[in-house]
Amino acid sequence: MSSPQLILNKTPTVLVAGDFAHSFYEPAFCDGLRQCGAKVVELRVRPLFGPGELLQRAQTKYCIGPGVVLANAMLLAKCRQFAPDYVLAWRAPWLFPSTIRLVRRACNARIALYNNDDPFGPDRDFRIWQNFRRGIPFADICFAYRKINIDEYSRAGARRVRLLRSFFVSPLHRPLELDHELLERFSCDVVFVGHCEPDRRLDLMDALLASGLHVRIFGSDWDTYASGRRWERMLPINLLYGEGYVRAIAGAKIAVVFLSTRNRDQYTRRCFEIPAIGTMMLAPRTDEILSLFDEGAEVACFSDAQELVEKAVWYAKNDAERARIAAGGRSRCLRDGYDAAGRAREFLAEMAALDRERHVSGGLTRQDLPIRG
């Protein structure tokens, strides 16, 4: 795979603007860009929405307020100061279409939008996604998290759309040897680490808990849906981040994946984090997951509760087969570049393609044409 430097024949400067609230999103991607040789300028907009968590949440939810105005002004100021080649707005419903135009005039940068949530799904009428979609026609390129969004971005007026999947963070998501104390906290047959929502995971988790396997759950909102469910006796269920998250997966024989109906997911970032940590992944059988991993060699899959339980029980007892799939999954992640640096390389290649098109066409491409409205 060619390095971005060979594609671009220069060291690009990338301005990444976003919340930077979680280390496995913007900070990890920025590190990936640096590994690829790019110069990175970070704009952390979350502090601009303060002070106070309540004010931050309100401005984030409704995309209105002094912090929103300040974030747009700061983005323009940073672009004038650093003259980036590319601007990546990471989940930025606060970004005004007018700011995109001003950025292009100020430094002739290419503007990319990326969003790991689903701006076209069941929550599409929320103000946050209405605002996000207003900026789509003005960006040079939109990076879709899931395949189903590609055509939706195009119908929303996107000039160019490319798929950019999530990733694992190689310094964090790696095999761990747990000591006795940590094994007491985290060892189990099956673990799920993630949020709860009212979809098929409710019945799937009940089925696992009824199987007799030692099951652990970590994450948010499990108390909301616990009434009458088998995990009610396990409350409180705690949320884990960072090393705690890695330890919970490393301590399990099997880590199960559930997919968000709300986000219409066919895969999730855990599909890369789990095998990178070295634990066998048991995931829903979707076309997307089967395109990323070979079933039976790199991932075990299920289609319903019965198959989920049967696979979990069998693999929990068969150490050699479980270890074989776990090793295969980790090798696939490393070989195919499912980490942050691999995704950064994909991003830079797509941005370089835009530059090549502009150069070949004598300085003007469809991305440079003015947009009315």
Computed Rg: 22 Å
H/E topology pattern: HEHEHHEHEHEHEHEHEHEHEHEHHH
**If helices are DSSP runs of H or I spanning 4 or more residues, what is the number of helices?**
15
What count of domains describes the coordinates?
2
Task: Report strand %.
Answer: 5-15%
DSSP, total strands: 11
Physical arrangement of strands within the biggest beta sheet: 2-1-3-4-5-6
Task: Please describe the biggest sheet, giving its number of strands, its sense, and whether it closes into a barrel.
Answer: 6 strands, parallel
Distance between the termini: 40 Å
What would the average pLDDT be, to the nearest integer?
93
| Helix and strand composition category | alpha/beta
Helix content: 40-55%
The CATH architecture of the largest domain would be 3-Layer(aba) Sandwich
Q: What would CATH call the homologous superfamily of the largest domain? A: Glycogen Phosphorylase B
The low-confidence parts are 1-8, 369-373
- Please tell me what the overall shape is: globular
Please explain how this structure is put together.
The protein is α/β, with parallel strands linked by helices and about 375 residues long. The chain folds into two domains: about 5-165 and about 340-370, Glycogen Phosphorylase B (Rossmann fold), CATH 3.40.50.2000; about 180-335, 3-Layer(aba) Sandwich (Rossmann fold). Helix content is about 45%, strand content about 15%. It contains 15 helices and eleven strands. The protein has helices at about 5-10, 25-35, 55-60, 65-80, 95-105, 125-135, 150-155, 180-185, 200-210, 240-250, 270-275, 285-290, 305-315, 320-335, 340-360, and strands at about 15-20, 40-45, 85-90, 110-115, 140-145, 160-165, 190-195, 215-220, 250-255, 280-285, 300. Helix 2 packs across helix 15 (about 340-360). The longest helix is centred in the last third of the chain and has 21 residues, at about 340-360. It starts with a helix and ends in a 13-residue tail after the last helix. The relative contact order is 0.12. The model is unreliable at about 1-10 and about 370-373 (pLDDT under 50).
